[in-house]
Amino acid sequence: MCVSRLEAPIEDSPFLLDRVVIESHADIQAIQAICDYVYIDVKYQKSFSGAIPTRNTEARKHLSFARSFNQTANTFQRTGNLIKTVMDDIRFGNQFSVSAVKQAVSECVDKVLENPDTMLLLTQIKDQDQYTAQHSMNVCILSILLGRELNFSMEDLNKVGFCGLMHDVGKMKVPLEILNKPGSLEDYEMDIMRKHTLYGRNVLMSARNVYPGAVDVAYDHHEHLAGTGYPRGLNKTTLSIFTKLVAVVDTYDAITSDRVYQRGKPHLMALGILVKGMGQQFEANYVTQFINCIGFYPQGNLVELSSGEVGLIVEQNKADRLKPKILLIQDGNKNPIEEKILDLSLNIADASGKRYGVKQVIRPQDCGVDLAKYYQDGKFTKEYAVVG
């Protein structure tokens, strides 16, 4: 077989020329060590060795973000650990490092711009026991993603990311027995919980070199455009752009997350709630752009297909948002299977001869899927067979 071009830069190649004739298994191993794919010279192959046999060879490929997944995930995890440390410092009355938070947000902005699909996927790997810190991290990433959709400058992306990461720091001043209460809050407990906006404002105002807009977001992210929110009943004329933006993504992540007192709702149901609140609670343009940004089937969501099989959304299709790429993980009886990639845009038929389609978005817990374990087991960097 003749390789006409390598994916790897020429300086990384162990071969003297970029055109390589593969003659042994050792040649294959050498190429695998430096790149994931190559370009084959089909004309050369046909002229000197005959056609490449492909009919009986199962097609395999990596997920689109596989090569950069680990590096992006490391940034996500580092920032998540930092916000936990920051929140612990606030809870115990210590000063937190504003510069460290800004640096972490800057790294997140870079990763969102480089690999938005991976960052969106990582926001779906949730841990109920770490809700507040993880929620803050997710709001940071989703705020940056929405800001990117709105063509924010780099400076504003860093600012809105900082606002998202720090919007709920006031909850560290709420007593744990109220913050982590498994049932509904009593009226007096709800009054205390709602004071987290005031506490957050005070925490950020007492810190040096905090972006002033973050103080507004911490204080006002539960206000509504119609003036029906809290703590001050402000309306749309007095709310900042960043406050309106964070309010949208904050609500979305809260709705879709499991908490001690409620189960998270599926993605499409959360979008429906945002749409219903357009104009009264949320800025309509931000809701619309948020839906454009994350799509109807964002990475990390589970779907049940028309065949009854279950799959994980791993890549969106920008040309047709209703036909994403899916990693099949369960058969029609909800039993685990060897994972395969299914591209709905290819209009492939299932085992019964009917064309594949999405039946519904489901919660991982409803079919016994642990996304965190998928992450830990390196499932997002493996190579998979392709259906069809």
Automatic annotation (TrEMBL):
> CDD domains, from UniProt?
HDc
SUPFAM superfamilies named in the record? HD-domain/PDEase-like
Q: Which residues form the HD-GYP domain?
A: 110-306
Q: Which PROSITE patterns match?
A: HD_GYP
Superkingdom of this entry's organism? Bacteria
**UniProt xrefs under InterPro entries:** DUF3391 (IPR021812), HD/PDEase_dom (IPR003607), HD_GYP_dom (IPR037522), HDIG_dom (IPR006675)
A Pfam family found in this protein is DUF3391
What's the protein called, per UniProt?
HD-GYP domain-containing protein
Q: Which organism is it from?
A: Methylomonas fluvii
Write the lineage as a comma-separated list: Bacteria, Pseudomonadati, Pseudomonadota, Gammaproteobacteria, Methylococcales
